[in-house]
Specification:
With 114 residues, the protein is mainly beta. It is built from no helices and eleven strands.
């Protein structure tokens, strides 16, 4: 069974930066596409960024230019560097692993104050 554990969330002022980490157990990480999603109160979960096993990256329009997704296959870890944070970025951020099926972490809370 694959397990994903997010960390790095917290409280930050608008304009600040934060880096999230997701550590994956199991042996399939290097074969998998990885992604970050987020869900704000009262809203549906939405895509933030993805990185394929070959390294290609995609970003939601709202975060492109501000967020950077990366992966370290040797450490079975995916990162999300978030710069110039806005109050609208406040959400629980979830790590996703996709290989034949989806695996999800339990999330880490990011709160951006005005």
């Amino acid at each position: 069974q694959v397990q994903l554990v997010e960390s790095g969330g917290g409280l930050v002022q608008a304009g600040g930066s934060l880096t999230l980490s997701c550590a994956a157990s199991g042996s399939i990480f290097r074969l998998s596409a990885m992604g970050w999603y987020r869900q704000a109160p009262g809203k549906q979960r939405e895509l933030v960024a993805t990185v394929a096993r070959g390294g290609s990256r995609n970003y939601a329009d709202l975060v492109r230019g501000r967020f950077t997704i990366s992966r370290d296959n040797a450490k079975n870890t995916v990162y999300l560097q978030m710069n110039n944070l806005e109050p609208e970025d406040t959400a629980i951020y979830y790590c996703n692993l996709r290989l034949h099926m989806d695996y999800w972490g339990k999330g880490t809370l990011v709160t951006v104050s005005s």
